[in-house]
Amino acid sequence: MASAPIPARSTAGAPVTPAATSTPSAISARGIGRRFKNTWALRGFDLEVGRGTVHGLLGPNGAGKSTAVRVLTTLLRPHEGTAEVAGHDVAAQGARVRYRIGLVGQNAAVDEILSGRQNLELFGRLYHLGVRAAARRADELLERFGLSETGKRPVSTYSGGMRRRLDLAAGMILSPPVMFLDEPTVGLDPRGRDEVWSAVRDLVDGGTTVLLTTQYLEEADQLADRISVIDAGHVIAEGTPAELKARIGGDRIDVVLRDEHALAEAAALVEGATGHTVRTAPRERRLSTEVDDRAASLTRAVRALDEGGVAVADVVLRSPSLDEVFLHLTGPDSAATTGPARPDENTTEAQR
Amino acid sequence: MNDTDRTRTPHTAPATAPSAFPAPSPPAGPLSRLGWAAADGWTVARRDVTHWLRQPWELLFGLLFPVLMVLMFVYLLGGAMSVPGGGDYTEYLMPGMFAMVMVFGLGETVTAVTTDSVRGVTDRFRSMPMAASAVVVGRCLADMLRSTVTLAILIGFGMLVGWQWHGSAGAALAGFGLLLLLRFALVWVGIYVGLLMRGQGGIAVIQTLEFPIGFLSNAFVATATMPVWLGAVADWNPMSSTVAAARELFGNPAAGGDSWITQNPLLMAVVWPLVLVAVFAPLCVHRYRNLSG
Questions:
Q1: Does the domain made of A251-319 have the CATH classification 3.30.70.100?
Q2: Residue A351: its chain B contacts at CB < 8 A?
Q3: Window A:57-76, CB contacts with B under 8 Å
Q4: CB nearest to A52's CB, from B13, B117, B124
Q5: In chain A, how many H helices and how many E strands?
Q6: Total of domains in chain B
Q7: Does the ipTM exceed 0.90?
Q8: What pTM, to 2 d.p., does this model score?
Q9: CATH architecture classification, A1-100+180-192+199-249+322-352
Q10: C-beta separation of B235 from B261 below 8 A
Q11: Which among A52, A175, A221 is the nearest to B10, CB-wise?
Q12: Average pLDDT over residues B51-57
């Protein structure tokens, strides 16, 4: 891909403007650094999340997403920088922050032996609601997350989607203004994923601010108002999904051929017709390229292929996907990957 | 993925979503903090009690094993056993069996702590505004409760197969107290080991290790019958001091030795657990605070 790497919105060591501290952000992190032994998992990490919005934190394994969430939820102390969540400093006012956040981690962090209702009552009492209020709140949340019918069954009998919804409900006991969802749909089947997505949309409709980490671009695209792309411990791009897509250029056409041997010939023809470099995926017998003038380019490309005698199975005109943005920003040929070495986040973080 | 389908705009709702339950603030004074910590610890411990009520067979199965061990040693192997210095083998065995059950509790503690930590429940607790001590204190309370019940049932069973104490009721109570003190020390060892574990695979290792720990002691046979060096190792096993002290307090045959460690079981049955607590309790607190560090 020929376009220049997208400049990071904020880089390590950038001066903090006074305006940044006075904006009514639900989450505001400035220059966060956190290392494990000698490896910086986060370095110069900046984040501003507006109230009532969904912010996606998108990045590959080991980019530092979970570390960022753990710092913002007071589970880890930052070694550098400051962060405020719901108006309180995460390092100095941890207890106050903990009353105002909900955390839904990568595992459904609920008790398997207890029933769904008993889980919510337990967490409610630990939020100091009192026994009666905790019981009332448990009923409300079971109803809201569609778990009333199964509320008395042990969690070990729940499906993955139901567990994750219970997990969300447990995070919502105090109706916290800020929710952290750390890869909430990892390991779920499509049905479970849809259940969680719909629950997240309900939260947001209630005015909750959500920080969502994900590896799935579709998830960020579906749910997030803004996205920060994170790699090697800091944010390398930030914007709305549309802005991020726009930054890597215009629309794309994909052509799928009947015969993979014609790929090179077809690539040359399409390149001639559109004036842009063509990328090929031989295994899928597919080639794709950027186009400047949608339909006209498409027509020219199809005509060129037809005249060249190349048999075409399928042609699609589409906007660039977030996958392409993501690969472009974090790929090995991108200048954006020069940063601190990343620890193996999967093995170190999943077990904590 | 089509961008034009995105019609939802950022919400302009206030930062604090309307809540029927306004966030309470953390308590200020030292006394209310203490009450808060105690209440949270008890709430965490009660979760285990609920587990037992929901799955009573788990508790029963946990009891079945020591009961079978007693039957095995009393009726299957007991005939071939002789206690150096004389005395009834069943009377010699039961204090050792009580201590063995305390050691088996280690596996229960490690299992509970590891399961919570691997499933993310520990992190959820840490992200909640509860007392920082509550998870550890609650674990300790629940495990002590369970071990006390187990010990009481095994005492009853021991009496059924012919064991009894001969001293005063006060001395007998002191003996049970020392057994529970050993369990208390092992709770902290177990919590620390559980917090160190990265996966549930390690649980089986701990449960297997309980056997050499338990058997390399004076619980089942007198250490005088072992090779000298092995007997010395067994004598210095903290569990041996507890067993010897309990035998002394119950007035059961002791078959002790001449070494300093076998001559001072009462002292060491207090010192060993206190040393273990002094080492492992701070390690637990440190580990819990810096779980990811």
A1: yes
A2: 117-118, 198-199
A3: 70, 73-76
A4: B13
A5: 13, 14
A6: 1
A7: no
A8: 0.79
A9: 3-Layer(aba) Sandwich (3.40)
A10: yes
A11: A52
A12: 92
